[in-house]
Automatic annotation (TrEMBL):
The keyword Oxidoreductase applies. The keyword Oxidoreductase applies. It comes from the Bacteria. It comes from Microbacterium imperiale. Belongs to the aldehyde dehydrogenase family. This is Aldehyde dehydrogenase. SUPFAM superfamilies: ALDH-like. GO terms for biological process: 4-hydroxyphenylacetate catabolic process. InterPro entries: Ald_DH/histidinol_DH, Ald_DH_C, Ald_DH_CS_CYS, Ald_DH_CS_GLU, Ald_DH_N, Aldehyde_DH_dom, DH_HpaE.
Length: 492
């Protein structure tokens, strides 16, 4: 028997009437009263208005964060005291994971089970940086008879955090946790497509005992609120995750102020499957790698390169498995691919699907899935025989669309893998140990997974090369980004 609530759109109960900014411990509207529409991707219905922040709202938020930094207790608290607050944040996020997942899934179209995983990861990010900050050790050097030198690590000030709409709550936590753990104060500008889950942070921080002004949130469009945050002279740091083209603009806008920048940008990551690989595992992992999170994942393995001797078998089996991926309503626990985040993004992904029909051989998907005539649903789509010059091979689609290309030699595989402007992740499938390491070390990617899926230890560096990013986050690298390391020298 089918549960009919799983085959019709779902609206969570107790949605807020609207979304406001959170400045200096208070929920406020925009100074000019402006709002923007927020819609749910399944029905396309505008379900609430969010405050549309502009320069005046950013000015107020930065002033509050600056006051909290210069006068408030947060930067001066012992790491252990800040750590306790962050652990309470983690506890609260964990205790609300089901509600968070429900709201995130509704607002972004992510499958509910995957949204739940992301909520738990957000809690883990807070726990991780809460632990790391108390374990922080800094260098001391002694030149015998002459000098002692030590590092005095200090928070920098007001950190501007600008985040995208894919896994929004989790990606916000990835910046909030280290920025706050190190004693900075923050202004968060979440993505305008998905402001719902971000609106929960205010209550969580208040309950956890965060002093007012330490965490501030301004909603709004990138070109208004985001732009004003980047250009604000009292914001010395910008941590940005989003498209490479937006990153370039932010880089230019931050230049006059010589701001510290951390940029996590786009990707077009290759998965390279050699003939000696465990094909069952490679197929399962590369299906997950591009279709989980609706394909709206920066590290999606969206180009699969397959050694020619197993190419035909791989394509046939891959296409069959892609057709079995279950598309459904985001709130259905059986759903593997939900609804894309927004009609605008749906149109973009669909334009690539149409383009792909001329650039490759369509072997699965290619449009809306059966039974979903409305909403932003896209069937898992696979193009084979895609040439490296094709736009679908070169450009980030950010949806459930993958291209497969054959290769003959290791050298050709490496050339193909490196043949895009991006360099975020790579996935290598082979049982030859030497080849695995040689290939991984040569591939132009910030992160490589060998015979494995996209699972990360939070201590490892996260970041891309080429157009995929600037700098690294993760573990102590995040602590370094959010702190000054002052060198103090004493002559003996
Ligand atoms: P986007 O660049 O359109 O927007 C990201 C954020 O930047 C939003 O909050 C937006 O409002 C803001 N913004 C836009 N213009 C701005 C401006 N001129 N000044 C300041 N802020 C501005 O990206 P998106 O479409 O929200 O996200 C998808 C992109 O993010 C993809 O390219 C994806 O690969 C990338 N991404 C990268 C990572 C990573 O870690 N490398 C992780 C997730 C997503």
């Amino acid at each position: 028997m089918t549960d009919s609530t799983l085959t019709t759109p779902h609206t969570p109960t107790d949605l807020p009437d609207g979304i406001r900014h959170y400045i200096d411990g208070t929920l406020v509207d925009s100074v000019d009263g402006a709002t923007f529409d927020v819609l749910d991707p399944v029905t396309g219905r505008v379900y609430l208005q969010a405050a549309a922040g502009k320069k005046a709202d950013i000015d107020a938020a930065v002033a509050a964060a600056r006051r909290a930094f210069t006068e408030g207790p947060w930067p001066r608290m012992l790491p252990r005291e800040r750590s306790r607050v962050l652990h309470r944040v983690a506890d609260l996020v964990e205790s609300r994971d089901a509600r968070l997942a429900e709201l995130e899934s509704f607002d972004s179209g992510l499958p509910i089970t995957q949204a739940l995983g992301q909520a738990r990861r957000a809690a883990e990010n807070f726990r991780f940086f809460a632990d790391l900050i108390v374990a922080q050790a800094d260098d001391t050097y002694k030149v015998p008879g002459r000098q002692i030198n030590y590092v005095n690590r200090k928070p920098i000030g007001v950190a501007g955090l600008i985040t995208p709409w894919n896994t929004p709550f989790m990606l916000e936590s990835w910046k909030l946790a280290p920025a706050l753990a190190t004693g900075n104060t923050v202004v968060l500008k979440p993505a305008e497509f998905t402001p719902l889950s971000a609106s929960l942070w205010a209550g969580i921080f208040e309950e956890a005992g965060m002093p007012p002004g330490v965490f501030n949130l301004v909603n709004g469009l990138g070109e208004d609120a985001g732009d004003a945050l980047v250009k604000h002279p009292d914001v010395p740091l910008i941590s940005f995750t989003g498209e490479s083209s937006t990153g370039q603009l932010i880089f230019a806008n931050a230049a006059p102020h010589l701001k510290g920048l951390s940029m996590e940008l786009g990707g077009k990551s290759p998965a390279i499957v050699f003939a000696d690989a465990d094909l069952d595992a490679a197929i399962d992992a590369t299906i997950f790698g591009v279709f989980s999170l609706n394909g709206e994942r920066c590290t999606a393995g969206s180009r699969i390169l397959v050694e020619r001797s197993v190419y035909d078998e791989f394509v046939e089996r891959y296409a069959a498995q892609a057709q079995r991926v279950r598309v459904g309503y985001p709130h259905d626990p059986a759903t593997e691919v939900g609804a894309l985040v927004h009609p605008e993004h749906f149109d973009k992904v669909m334009s690539y699907v149409e383009l792909g029909k001329n650039e490759g051989r369509l072997v699965a998907g290619g449009g809306r899935p059966a039974g979903f005539e409305t909403g932003t649903f896209v069937a898992p789509t696979v193009f084979a025989d895609v040439a490296p010059t094709a736009r679908i091979f070169q450009e980030e689609i950010f949806g459930p669309v993958v291209c497969i290309t054959p290769f003959d030699t290791d050298a050709e595989a490496l050339t193909l893998a490196n043949d895009t402007r991006y360099g975020l992740a790579a996935y290598v499938w082979t049982n030859d140990l030497k080849r695995a390491h040689n290939f991984s070390q040569a591939v132009e990617a910030g992160m490589v997974w060998l015979n494995s899926n996209n699972v990360r230890d939070l201590r490892t560096p996260f970041g891309g090369v080429k157009a995929s990013g600037l700098g690294h986050e993760g573990g102590y690298r995040s602590i370094d980004f959010y702190t000054h390391q002052q060198a103090v020298h004493i002559t003996l």
